Amino acid sequence: MEEEGKVRDMVTPGEVLGKASDVRPGKGTYAVPYNDLVYASLTGIHHSVPPVPDSTDQRPTVEVTDHKAHGAVPETGSVIIARVTKVMAKMASADIMCVGSKAVQEKFTGIIRQQDVRATEIDKVDMHSSFRPGDIVRAIVLSLGDARAYYLSTAKNELGVVSAESMAGATMVPISWTEMQCPLTAQIERRKVAKIGG
Amino acid sequence: MEYVSPEGLRLDGRRPMEMRQIRAEIGAVAKADGSAVFEMGNTKVIAAVYGPREVQHRSQQMSDQALVRCEYSMANFSTGDRMRKPKGDRRSTEISLVIRQTMEACILTHLMPRSQIDIFVQVLQADGGTRSACINAATLALADAGIPLRDLVTSCSAGYLNSTPLLDLNYVEDSAGGPDVTVGFLPKLDKVTLLQVQNLLNCVILGRFSALVVGKMDSKLPIDTFENVMQLAIEGCKAIANYIREILLENTKQLEYRRGL
Amino acid sequence: MLHSKTFVKKTRGGKVNKQVREHYLRDDIYCGAPICKVCDSSTARLSPSASTILIVDTNVVLNQIDLLENPAIDDVVMLSIVLEEVKNKNMGVYNRVRALCSNSLRRFFVFANEHHKDTFVKEMNKESKNDRNDREKAFSNFPVLTSKSIELAIRVAAQWYQTHLGGATHVLLITNDRENKRKAIEEGISAETIESYVKSLDRPELLDLLVQPTSEDVNMVEVEDLRPSKRKIMYTEHKPMSEITSGLHRGIYHQGKLRVNRYNPFEAYVGSESIGDEIIIYGRTNMNRAFDGDIVAVELLPQDQWHEEKSLSIAEEEDEDEDVHLVPSSTDDAPRTTSLVQGSAGDLNFASSHPSGRVIGIIKRNWHSYCGSLEPMPMPAGSGGTAHALFVSKDRRIPKIRIHTRQLENLLDKRIIVAVDSWDRLSRHPSGHYVRTIGEIGDTCNLKQEIGGRDTESEVVLIENDINSRPFSSQVLACLPPLPWSVSSGDLANPIRQDLRNLRVFSVDPPGCKDIDDALHCTSLPNGNFEVGVHIADVTNFVHPGTPIDDEAAERGTSVYLVERRIDMLPKPLTEGCYQGEQRSLAIHWVHIFTDGIVNFADVRIEQEMTPDAEIISKRYTKSVIKSCAALSYIEAQARMDDSRLMDPLTTDLRNMNALAKIMRLRRIERGALTLASAEVKFQIDTETHDPLDIGMYQIREANQMVEEFMLAANVSVAGKILEDFPLCSLLRRHPTPTREMLEPFLRTAAAVGLNLDASSSKALADSLDRAVGDDPYFNKLIRILATRCMTQAVYFCSGDLSPPEYHHYGLAAPLYTHFTSPIRRYADIIVHRLLAASLGICKLPPIFQDRPQLTSVADNLNYRHRNAQMAGRASVELHTLIYFRKRYGIEGPVYLTTRSEKGGGEWFVDEQQQKIRKMDGSLSYTVLQTVKIHMEVVEPQPNRPKLQLMLI
């Protein structure tokens, strides 16, 4: 039933959302003065925001939030999920897939520099024994970085590799905070493992 | 030439009021801000939208509204016999302009001043009605790009052959030389935004256009048939709009799922 | 509803390219049987009680169409794939099948099997496109199937029908293709050949309609075997299509329409565009089985043979003693080069400069049915069985046709219609089959007429010219207004219709004319100008577009005037009733509804001298109601004008109009309008027996010219008016300027009698024609007839199809012309009336005008009907001339000089420069246009084909 409701709330451009005398056009909508109607101008979910109690205009505001506008943009301090694409001596680059629990629409790249991998012994970090391309990593956004990439950090216990595949292709099981083991070959690979649920 | 058999079937087996199979797909070009593939029977068109983004040439920037640009092209392989058409020929320029104007009329350009929206449409396979398919594809791509639109503008053609109004002409019917109209329509606002007329006896055209422009509806010219044909095209537009809405909603639903909401 | 699509491939024009077309398969195509419970039966055509449903194969439709048209064959399912194939192969048959399918009396149902989801068959083995038809089809614009796939599709459809309808109905596949029949039976479909099916019907007369299949038929081979002498090869084989195509491409062969000389069936012309000249084909051997009207491929003979061949032309074909004599007929279809043969023996001397050739292949047959009779022959022993007979067509251009009949004794004295089926190279004559009987042969040599016989001959004239003389159907008659009709108050109250009953309107027509469609009035205005009104019957008030009556009129195109009868385009109440008021009832309403084209003339100085000033100041067009005060004949009108004692208003009007008309006529002639002439004869017909009593030339009076002048003026102004408003969809009439080459023979003929004609412009020609006066009062007329013959005919056309300079009417020297004034007898005028009404804003333009190809086809049909009506008129005159011949007027035709028996040989010598023919010994010479005395008689050199023979005395 809940699903049904959602579908009904979805609108496409041109659909009438209400009378301009009853509702205030907000984001993703527009009003046509001559026929006193408010229309949607985006595809997305339609919801109305109750008026601020002390404002003079007591009409609720209708808004259409489209999927693009959902703030799936990494910001400083947000926890993201990324996939490692390339591991170099001084840093690893990763594609950001989710910001918090929301998927991103566009491609954002992030960089985990050597000094940001872990909190301790930061000068002894070997990037290749911390990440492998394809690993799914939980990280925090340090800063917006340069024009190309966000700077990410895994320097916390709960951050690091959350899921990785072994050479044999199986999803490995974490056995310590630096090691993961392949269930098929029992081979042990080194990673900066995130501590989950602990 | 018999385009409608006495049994009421067209050459490809459709009845006069039937459209070809339509199919649409959103997100065919990942890099673009919005994109879509639109098929009407064997006519297949791809559209990609970039923007709103910064205006490339400062001189074109407008302080009160967005600049809409459109580029139409036909793939060399689209007509089957690999005709090499020079880029920017008259026909392409004209269709580019038509699409641009149609889309511009439905984009809320005033919301995005000093920016630019680029629409690229390319015909992958041509079998009549490319103009309409391009407009439909562009609408989908714009909606996908999240550009605020007044309404979903859709387009469909209709013609008049063997004294029968025919919806959605294919290439064979289109090249029969009979009168045909291509209509661009805003279904929710119930407004015709594009009307292109071909091969109507020019008396009809003149009569109709003078009626449109001057608003003189007591024209003595035989506009009845013309109105019928146009009404048919509008019905076609409505059907396409319903389909496009379905596709858009389906697409949004998919995204919602993916987002885990 | 839309199911799936398939892709088909095609090639064309040398280049191979792939074409992809969608093909939708449907589930809403119904079977057409009313007993069917699944399908929607609202469109069902088959009979509810049909126990057997026939599905026919393409070959059956193509060959046995005459049989299918017989009402005995019914409950037929036509598969769309079969129709498509028939259309590709023979458009004529296709149209006939289509007519059958739309005929509500017949139960023919078209099943669109190609689009039904269960009966669609994908094209199979594409490589098998090696038979000729398939390769030809590859050039067509639309995807086509190989004959194998068609056969398969037919079987699949038959199978579907059988399972669909279940056991209650028997589905029978009729095919003459052995392979197909075998496969069908293997697949459990009942199949039969058409012969066995017809035999099973137990209707012997139907067997005559059967076309004898060529190669397969066993009987035929046996018959041929009995006459081994006949088995020699008569004609060379036709070249395969591929060779012809490549030959045409390389310029070795030439393509064109074969036209057989009307006067000499052994001589034919092929107008070839590739060599820009006409190729002459001499003799049946060279014609190689081509019929008149066929599109053929021709190979040129070596130049040294161009000369020799002609001497053979007449001598050849000893067995068909076709002595060809003077025939009063037209030369319309004869090649331009023979237009000079009037009176000269041109036929024998011009050939040298023309290439001759022989037919090597036939690209498209023009076979249809022909009227004629059987060659008299003794009844073969054991009659009742089948017999072979030779059919002689009425049209001399058609060779004799061999038919196969079981009712010989019935047919011998009948005019019958025969269709051609095939002509193989082993037989001298093409073979055909009997279609139907028209009636008893009219013995035209015998003055004691049998009414039936003459009617048959008239019927033949109508059939030959494709004229529909059937009575109007009930649907058509239902469109008539309730009779007796009179002007209602509604008509008078209608604001678009002006009440002009106060005007002094009168009509001037030939005596005895009943279909009056025009009237005139002439009022002097206070300022000295005249108002002249041309009132035309408002037929469109009764004939509305899209109604059955309109369709019928469009199809008929024109009324046809035969000597003894008139075949109307519109039902009689419309031609004679509504405009005239009801004369038979007591209250005579002399009230008419007319469309007006009022033309205001002003002539300030009309008083004494006739200054050519009749300028048109203003024109007005309106619909009106008028009341005629007099219906005059030309003779009466003339008499009134001539009688100086009469000073009543009507006569004054007539005189004023006549004065204006004279000025207009003068001006027209100055512009260069030609006064042409044709040998129009007029018969006085016995009212009881319809036999001709007297024959005479049509006399033209001033009154005729006066009416004619105003009609021309009305036509011209209407043409201008409609073209102004509808530049692309007006129906106009044009008369192309004759080319130099066309006039050349005529000028030479004239030069031979010392006339110097200047044909540089129509004006110059008109002037020199005026000067051409000889001693004989008839001379000028003859010259004009010759001039007319050189020119092409005026034609209707749709203004969008040509550019304005081509609209010119040469004969009338008018830049624009149309037909407006006789809507009762010409459909073109009805169209023009509608255009005019639309242009006046009275009504909307009917949708047909938006469809230019359709309008063009209407114009083409009008031209065709018009020409046929003319031909029929002439043929009718010819017929009556033969019936009654004692006079000596205006007969034309080529002269063949033959040495009369003992009068001593002596070659004839033709002097091209002086246009003379001389006897070699100089004893006799004839010049062109010289008066000669002749002996004339009706002879019958060939049975049932009487003709007129002239002999110089």
TrEMBL record, chain A:
Q: Where is the Exosome complex component N-terminal domain?
A: 10-45
Domain Exosome complex component CSL4 C-terminal positions = 101-144
Entry keyword Cytoplasm? yes
Gene Ontology BP, a term: RNA processing
* Pfam family for this entry, one: EXOSC1
Q: Where in the cell is it found?
A: Nucleus, Nucleolus
Query: Could you tell me one molecular function GO term of this UniProt entry?
Result: RNA binding
Q: Name one GO cellular component term.
A: nucleolus
Give the principal location in a single coarse category: nucleus
| Record keywords, A-Z | Cytoplasm, Exosome
What InterPro entries does the annotation carry? Csl4, EXOSC1_C, Exosome_cplx_N_dom, NA-bd_OB-fold
Top-rank lineage group of the source organism: Eukaryota
PANTHER family, alphabetically? 3'-5' EXORIBONUCLEASE CSL4-RELATED (PTHR12686), EXOSOME COMPLEX COMPONENT CSL4 (PTHR12686:SF8)
Q: What is this protein called?
A: Exosome complex component CSL4
UniProtKB/TrEMBL annotation, chain B:
What keywords appear on the UniProt entry?
Answer: Cytoplasm, Exosome
What are the annotated GO cellular component locations?
Answer: cytoplasmic exosome (RNase complex); nuclear exosome (RNase complex); nucleolus
GO biological process per UniProt:
nuclear mRNA surveillance; poly(A)-dependent snoRNA 3'-end processing; rRNA catabolic process; U4 snRNA 3'-end processing
Named from the GO MF annotations, one term is: RNA binding
Q: Residue limits of the Exoribonuclease phosphorolytic domain?
A: 18-148, 151-234
Signal peptide extent: none
A Pfam short name:
RNase_PH
Cell location = Cytoplasm; Nucleus, Nucleolus
- Main location group: cytoplasm
Query: What PANTHER family is this protein classified in?
Result: EXOSOME COMPLEX COMPONENT, EXOSOME COMPLEX COMPONENT RRP41
What the record says about family reads: Belongs to the RNase PH family.
Q: Could you identify this protein by its name?
A: Exosome complex component RRP41
Q: Which organism is it from?
A: Morella rubra
Q: What is the lineage of its organism?
A: Eukaryota, Viridiplantae, Streptophyta, Embryophyta, Tracheophyta
Automatic annotation (TrEMBL), chain C:
Please spell out the taxonomic lineage of the organism that makes this protein: Eukaryota, Viridiplantae, Streptophyta, Embryophyta, Tracheophyta
Say which domain of life the source belongs to. Eukaryota
Q: Where is this region: Disordered?
A: 314-336
Q: Name one GO molecular function term.
A: endonuclease activity
Does Nuclease count among this protein's keywords? yes
The species this protein was found in: Morella rubra
Q: Main localization of the protein? A: nucleus
Q: What is this protein called?
A: Exosome complex exonuclease RRP44
For whether the record's keyword set contains rRNA processing, the answer is yes
